[in-house]
Amino acid sequence: MPIRTLYFDESGFTGYNLLDGAQPIFTVASTDIDTVVAETILKESFPKYRGSEFKFANIWGSNNKAGLVEFSRRLGGLRDHAFTWMIDKRFAVLTKIVDFLIEPYITDAGYDFYADGFCWKYANYIHFGLMQFAAPELYDSLVKAYQTFSRNPSPERLSGLQNQLGIMAASSEEPIRIFLEQMSLGADLFAHYHNLETFKKTNELQVTSILAVIAHWRKLYSEDFAVIHDASANFFRQREIWDRITNNNVPAQMMPLGDGALVQYPLRVVSTTQVNSEDNYSVQLCDVLAGVIARHFDMRIDGDNRKLLDEVINAGLNAIEYNGIRPSQVFPDRIPPKRLAGPDVVDRMTGIIFGPHNNPR
């Protein structure tokens, strides 16, 4: 089977702090553009650049940023050879509230909370309700309360979260109250479903992001994949989990993604290699692309910088496919979700990671 090489880099990583005010967007950029073509694109887009490697942070802070328009034009002509994944980190916190406070007892009641992307759609539904029917500060208070707990979980902080959600629910009116009551119930039941000692890891975004990107490429191509990434990138630091997920002995199956789409396992990633980005123009291209997308979705950027970003996107990057976790008006078509009929996606992913193919005797 021929091998297709995929290159990756990221922008906006802030660890488990998903409410970092300076970097509200996390992005992963990927491409299958080889290093020779990538070098040509970068050097002809930024002819006056003098750094040891092309990095978006250096380009954005200099006169070279006008070259982003040409960079966009050239990538737009290669629209099927790049893909970006973005996460609005504040909304990601809301999805985690739904995922870890509401989902467990709904699933326990016999419903498939992930079928047809229900979890993601329900988070959209709650977000819409908060934006339309609640005071602006409620959304901020809600995600801040959850992040304060989840970053440093302890019995004392859990008690604080339970009290805060109880007060929010009691002081809210319909149609918002029902959502806050569900969250409050989930916080009260927390110890029944979760382990405080390991819960901090649920703030992780990197593995799910890279899986979503691989899934995109898997839907396009039948070749095996060789993954190359910057050695300083954070999304491959959980290497053991990554190796387990990409183990080619995983039983063949169609696995649902968060939005309800399906991807075929095994993912057929035959190698994952870290490189020094100074030595790889394709990784450098991903750095620039990830930086542009992170700035584009940062709604705080305005004035001349926003005008430039709009020009950059319209020059060609608007032809490149992207996906991610951000609020949208895609809501559940039924409430409650479907009845559970067999293992849900969480149980199936657990089987992929910890199944016998990954634990040979």
Keywords:
361 residues; alpha/beta; Nucleotidyltransferase, domain 5; 6-stranded mixed beta sheet; two-stranded antiparallel sheet; globular
Describe the structure.
This protein has 361 residues and is an alpha/beta fold. The chain folds into 2 domains: 208 residues, Nucleotidyltransferase, domain 5; 113 residues, no CATH class. It is 47% helix and 14% strand. It contains 14 helices and 8 strands. A 6-stranded mixed β-sheet has the order 7-4-1-2-3-8, sandwiched between helices. A hairpin with a 5-residue loop joins strand 5 and strand 6. Helix 1 packs antiparallel against helix 3.
Text of the CATH class of the largest domain:
Alpha Beta
Number of domains: 2
- Helix-strand string: EEHHHEHHHHHHHEHEEEHHEH
CATH fold label of the largest domain: Nucleotidyltransferase, domain 5
Described by the principal axes of the CA atoms, the overall outline is globular
Strand content: 5-15%
Outline the low-pLDDT stretches.
none
| Terminal CA distance | 29 Å
Instruction: State the helicity in percent bands.
Output: 40-55%
Alpha-beta classification: alpha/beta
In round numbers, the mean pLDDT is: 93
Q: Tell me the radius of gyration.
A: 21 Å
